[in-house]
Design brief:
The complex is a heterodimer of chains A (115) and B (114). With 115 residues, chain A is mainly β. Chain A has no helices and eleven strands. In chain A, strand 4 and strand 5 form a beta hairpin. Chain B has 114 residues and is mainly β. Classes of the chains: A mainly beta (115), B mainly beta (114).
């Protein structure tokens, strides 16, 4: 059972380039999330999705876009990379919504550097 | 808004030592509280949780008690092992929030020396 799989593990981008961070889960979870983790900071929610076709903004959505065409996949798109987007990105999923205190299942993260 | 304050790291202990990692929180409602652990090279995973005041969460020898009077959820373990070396995150989930946000602390890196 793979759980939550993120690709790539590492990436270096030049300012202004674009890329998509991939996330897929095989647990049939409806709820999926993208977080970023900056050095010395807690995780911040970028976007989340409560099911296929439904997405919503989190705390720090600027500069990012998401889509959710299937239950399994929740890609995160950076259109014009900026140095402020240098971070470690985590995708997560859960079976139930947050209000049921359902645990989050995290991927191993993508370390992105924008120079 | 909601916030979580964790003990500054890094923390280095010898094997079999007693561990405490402090966590205090600020929330408008009655949050649920969590400890997540991140082992090297892996994503975060839930370690334990408590959903109401005076609840004690426990797992793998770790414990934390939800103290509403002191707004705290300190993580403890009586005898740590090298395999406990990881980064530990305290987090809260406030039911008054209108979205799926968990509020995380900054994380505390723990290193256990044999």
């Amino acid at each position: 059972n793979a759980g939550v799989t993120q690709t790539p593990k590492f990436r270096i981008l030049k300012i202004g380039q674009s890329m998509t961070l991939q996330c897929t889960q095989d647990m049939n979870h409806n709820y999926m999330y993208w977080y970023r983790q900056d050095p010395g900071m807690g995780l911040k929610l970028i976007y989340y999705s409560v099911g296929a076709g439904i997405t919503d903004k989190g705390e720090v959505p600027n500069g990012y876009n998401v889509s959710r065409s299937t239950t399994e996949d929740f890609p995160l798109r950076l259109e014009l990379a900026a140095p402020s987007q240098t971070s470690v990105y985590f995708c997560a999923s859960s079976y139930l919504p947050r209000t049921y205190n359902s645990p989050l299942h995290f991927g191993n993260g993508t370390r992105l550097t924008v120079t | 808004g909601d916030s979580v304050t964790q003990m500054e790291g890094p923390v280095t202990l010898s094997e079999e030592a007693f561990l405490t990692i402090n966590c205090t929180y600020t929330a408008t409602g009655y949050p649920s509280l969590f400890w997540y652990v991140q082992y090297p090279g892996e994503g975060l995973q839930l370690l334990l949780k408590a959903t109401k005041a005076d609840d004690k969460g426990s797992n793998k020898g770790f414990e934390a008690t939800y103290r509403k009077e002191t707004t705290s959820f300190h993580l403890e373990k009586g005898s740590v092992q090298v395999s406990d070396s990881a980064v530990y995150f305290c987090a809260l989930s406030d039911p008054n929030f209108g979205n799926e946000k968990l509020t995380f602390g900054t994380g505390t890196r723990l290193t256990i020396i044999p």
